Amino acid sequence: MAALKNIGSIQLFAEIQNGSVHTVYKGYQTSLERFVLVKTLKPEFTGDTELVNRFIGEARFIAKIQHSNVVAVFESGELDNQHYFAAEFIDGFDLRQILSKKRLPPELAFYILLETVNGLKAAHDNDILHQDIKPSNILISYEGQVKLTDFGMAGLRPTEDDTPPDSVSGTLPYFSPEQILGEKPDKYSDIFSLGSTLFEMLTGNQAFSGETGRDFFEAIVSHDPIPFLQGKPDMPPAFIGLCEKMLKKNKTGRYQNCDELITDLTVIQETCRMKLDAANLKSYLESPETYQSLDFKTESRTPKARPVQTSKNGKLIFRAAAFIVLIVSLAVYNIFFSAAFKSPIPQTSITENKNSITDFPQDSTQGPVTSLAKNAIKQFPVDNSINGSLKPKIEKTTQAQTTAREAKQNNQTPARNRSGYLNISVTPWAQIFIDGDSIGTTPLNREIKLSSGKHVIKLINPEFPVVEKSVIIAANSTQLFEILLWSEICELKLDISPWADVYIDGVHKDTVPPQERPIILFPGKHKLALVHPNLGRWETEIAAKAGEPLDLQFNLNTLLKN
User: At residue 442, does pLDDT exceed 50?
Assistant: First the structure.
C-alpha cells in the first residue's frame, strides 16, 4: 500500500485483503464524502488480457444490477496503469465470519436467504449468473442489511447453443452436481449453491465435505445431507423441505427460477407468521447470546434407534403386509381350534401319517388344513388324558416374558436394549474420536451406534484446544451431542493506533488495523508484541480465559513516546 496512496479522489487508508491477483482497500471518496471499497488488479497482471477483461467485466456486471441486496459499483477505470473499481462499502461482516461462531437461528437463516435470493433474482433478470455463491460472498452490515457481492466469477446466462466451459468456476464445497459433471453453468447451479449455503446457516456445517477434491465430488453427486438436517429437533419441517428442493441432484427437481423460490418463501413466511426485517438481524449481531429465537411449533419427534427413510408407498406396503399376517394368523387359529375340538383324532393319525396333510382333520367350511396350520399344531403340547383325544395345552405367556426368559437363559440383556445412537454436531469442525477410535471429521451426517453406558468423546481441531467430554448413552435412544469450539478459546480483538504488526508468543498473527477477525488464543498466559517500523516495539503479557473475549486498545504514540 506504500506505493498506492490514492486513486483519483479516493484516499486509500486500510488494506482489507491481499489476494494473488487482486488487492482490496477501504477508501474514502472525498468528492462525495463517503467510504468506499476499492478493488484493484495487481500491476503485474495488467498485461494479461484475460484477467483484465474479467476484472472489467465484473465491474460492468455489477453495475447492471441495480438492487438493494447487491453491492453497488460507483465507478471503474484505469489510472496510471492501475485497473480499479470503487464499490459500496459494507461496514459489518460476511456470512462466513458469522457462521464461524455458531449456526444461525432458523428464522434469521430464512431472512438472509430471502434477501439474498432477491438480489440473485435481480442478477438473473439481467441474464447474469453469479457462479460463486457461498457464505463469504454474502455481506451483513451492522444494521442488518444483506448484500450479495463478488461477481468475479459471473458470466452471462448461457444459451442452448453454448458449449460447456473448459474449466469449472466457483468454490468446491458449493459446486452443483452438473458443474462437477462438466455441464455448462446455469441458474439452477446458483440455486443449488444457495441451497448449500442455507444448509450451512441452519446446521453450522457444510452440506458437503471431504479431505480431497474427489471426496467433495462424490459427496456432491451422491450424498444426501437432508437426514442430518432432519435430526435437528428445533428445525421447522417447512425449512427442511425448502432446503431439500434446492439441493435436488437433478436440476429439473429444483426450483426452476428465483421467482418460484420467492413464492415458496412468501408462503412459508405467512404460514409460520414470521415478521422479520433488518432490525431482527441487527439485534442478533449485537448480542447473539441474548437473542430470543422464534418458537416454532414443530412436529414432536420421538427418539429412534436409527434414522430410517421410508417412502409413502413403503409405509403402505408395510402396513398391508402386517394386516395380511394378522388375518392369516387368525385364520390358522380358527382352523386349528375348529378341527381340534370338533373331530377327535386317534393318536395313531399323528404318528403314522404325520407327513400327510390330508390325514389331518378338515373343517367343511374352511377346506383342508394347510401346512401352516400343521406347524401351528406342533407348537402346542399334547395332552392325552382326555379320552385319548388331541387337545392343546396352552401356556399363557406374554411375548415380553418369553424374550426375558430367553435372555436369562443366554445370560444377557435383550439385543434391542444394549445400544443407542449418538448424533454429533461441532462448530466449526473437528476430527472425532470415541473411546480412542477415530470416527471421522464433522459434519458426519450420520448417527453413531454405541453400546449403552459411558463413552469419552475427543475433538481435535488444530486451531482449538483438544476437547474431551463424557456422554452417557441410554439404550434404545438417540442423543444429540452439540458443542461450540469457540467457547473453549479466547477471542482477542485489538484497536491499535496508528497501526502495528501483532505477534503472539513470537508468531506473527495480523496487521491491525484492519482486523478482519479476532485472533484465537488458547486459555493461559501469552506474550503480546506490537511492532511499528517507525515507532518501535512494545510488549506485554495477557491472560486468556476460555469463553471470555478480550478487547484491548493501544496507542503506540503514547506507549512508545520517548
Answer: yes
Nearest to residue 248, comparing CAs of 313, 183, 176?
A: 176
CATH no., domain 93-158+169-286: 1.10.510.10
Nearest to 113, CA basis, from 129, 127, 133: 133
Taking residues 311-315, what's their average pLDDT? Answer: 45
- Which pLDDT band holds residue 86 (cuts at 50, 70, 90)? very high
Reported pTM: 0.55
Record: fold of 489-559: Immunoglobulin-like (2.60.40)
Instruction: Say whether pLDDT at 308 is over 70.
Output: no
Give the model confidence (pLDDT) of 350-390 as tens digits.
333 333 333 334 443 344 444 433 443 344 344 443 333 33
For CATH 2.60.40.2070, the residue range(s) in the chain are 489-559
State which H helix or E strand residue 84 sits in: strand 82-88
What CATH architecture does domain 415-481 belong to? Sandwich (2.60)
Rounded percentage of the chain residues whose pLDDT exceeds 70: 74
Question: Within 13 Å and on the Cβ side, how many CA atoms surround 555?
Answer: 3
DSSP of 432-482: EEETTEEEEES---S-EEEESEEEEEEEE-TTS--EEEEEEEPTT-EEEEE
Fold category of 6-88 in CATH = Phosphorylase Kinase; domain 1 (3.30.200)
Give the contacts of 396 (CB within 8 A, at least 6 positions apart). Answer: none
Is residue 479 packed enough to be buried (19+ CB in 10 Å), middle (13-18) or exposed (0-12)? middle
- Are 77 and 51 in contact by the 8 Å Cβ rule? The answer is no
